[in-house]
Design goal:
InterPro entries: Gfo/Idh/MocA-like_OxRdtase_N, Gfo/Idh/MocA_oxidoreduct, GFO_IDH_MocA-like_dom, NAD(P)-bd_dom_sf. With 325 residues, the chain is an alpha/beta fold. It is built from ten helices and 13 strands. It has two domains: 112 residues, NAD(P)-binding Rossmann-like Domain (Rossmann fold), CATH 3.40.50.720; 175 residues, Dihydrodipicolinate Reductase, domain 2, CATH 3.30.360.10. It starts with 5 loop residues before the first helix and ends in an 11-residue tail after the last helix.
């Protein structure tokens, strides 16, 4: 386990305890106190550099849950050591980095899987079948919001370290669903804001609105905010025969009047157990399951983000396909 922040301590480490195919072999973080606590709790070796962990533990794979700017170093170190990587999103912070890392993984012969949880949630996968029933989509509306008391706190408040703000962080999940269900848009027009905390020193956007356009006649928008409550997560896709509305762990098929025709519900709806993702990666490494979220699948995500940030800077539409490395 590389990176011992909230994602690791709340999800991955408890998830490893429930895995059928993997067990924890070591922990690593730049914070020596965190390392000492985790090593003592889980009775495994602890390290403050990934190089020492890779050399002394020689794990089959690393779970990387590090700040966005540190991901490249972790993947590069693992590639050099021939160690596979299960990585928290995003895959990379820009298209150049994404292409470089994809090439690095291929050259080293290592597998990498990005932990976009909705790809492993049965409701989101089953929703693809319902999508066929609405006809050719012409409208898509996405919204992912919650209230963070201090958007300036930590590395997430600094665009240089995070690679952006809410769009590259929490918005990555919404972008992943959009690309999974509908493909990469042909045009985006984006606006971003850092106005939620007047006087606070941060430059990573707390709110982003991205208008989308596809040449096949599909249009819409994504609204992402880590400052505007209440907490909501929804993607609605509309066609001539109705709407598919996917929310957190539920999917509803609506007729053109907005009446529910069919629903999918998982109880409990959330979370998608981290253990399921870790065991799936083990099966990927064993060759018994395909990798649904490898490097090549995430090159469009970084292209989308680069186009959105370019659009926000120039106040003009941008074509994500021009940013595909």
């Amino acid at each position: 386990m590389v990176g011992l922040g909230g994602q690791a301590t709340n999800d991955h480490l408890p998830g490893l305890a429930q895995c059928h195919l993997a067990e924890l072999a070591g922990v690593c973080d730049v914070d020596a106190d965190r390392v000492a606590t985790a090593a003592d709790t889980y009775q495994v070796p602890g390290f403050t550099t990934i190089e020492r962990l890779l050399q002394e533990v020689r794990p089959d794979f690393v779970i990387a849950a590090v700040p966005h700017h540190a991901g490249q170093q972790v993947i590069a170190a693992c590639a050099e050591a021939g160690v596979h990587v299960l990585k928290e999103k995003p895959f990379a912070t820009n298209p150049h980095e994404a292409a470089e890392l994809a090439g690095l993984c291929e050259k080293a012969g290592i597998d990498l899987m990005v932990t976009v949880q909705r790809r492993f949630h049965p409701v989101y996968a089953a929703a693809l079948q319902l999508l066929e029933r609405i006809g050719a989509p012409y409208l898509v509306e996405g919204r992912y919001t919650f209230h963070c008391p201090d958007p300036a706190a930590g590395w997430r408040g600094r665009a240089k370290l995070a690679g952006g703000g809410c769009l590259v962080d929490m918005g990555y999940h919404l972008i992943d669903l959009l690309i999974w269900y509908l493909g990469l848009p042909d045009r985006v027009l984006a606006d971003t804001s850092t106005a939620a905390a007047p006087g606070a020193a941060y430059d990573a956007e707390d709110t982003a609105l991205v208008h989308l356009g596809y040449d096949r006649g599909l249009y819409g928008s994504l609204l992402v905010s880590r400052s505007a409550g209440p907490k909501t997560e929804r993607l609605a896709i509309t066609g001539p025969h109705g709407t598919l509305a996917v929310e957190r762990g539920t999917a509803h098929l609506l007729d053109p009047r907005g009446q529910t025709v069919e629903s999918l519900l998982r109880e409990p709806a959330w979370p998608c157990p981290p253990a399921a993702q870790i065991d799936r990666f083990c099966r990927v490494l064993d060759g018994t399951a395909p990798n649904p979220s490898g490097p090549a699948a995430h090159l469009p995500h970084t292209a989308f983000l680069a186009a959105a940030y370019a659009s926000a800077t120039t106040n003009r539409p941008a074509d994500p396909k021009e940013f595909l490395a």
